[in-house]
Write a structure and sequence with these properties.
Elements lengths: L1 H22 L1 E2 L4 H19 L5 H19 E2 L2 H30 L12 H10 L1
Antiparallel strand pairs: 1-2
Amino acid sequence: MVIAEIINCICETFIIVLFYNRIFEKRKSGIFINSAEFILFVLINLSRSFLYIKVSLDWFFTGIWCIIIGALMFKGSRTKRVIAAAVYMIILVLTDLLISSIFSYVFNNPLNNGFVIMGYYRYVFSAAFL
């Protein structure tokens, strides 16, 4: 399960970096700095993923994580980075709701307990999101 969680965090970080890469210009840094920043963001995401917290708090931490990635890796105004993070969060929330509805219908498993999905359901959910 830990390997699946690591792969999930790498994919989530890669998706947000690609999302920002389409909107902002990348800061000029060497391959070592860019790789170190990416690994740092994966580790932050990995530490956040092992917390058993409510979905709303998880989305809040994800929003802060997105703003930090935008601030450290890309050029642009603060307002534009916050708007980009908000757009990403809206997309994330809509896809989470859609996928959880489909998932609960197919597997006959209610997912509206207010907490982050745990167990092997989480990885099926993440794979569907990717």
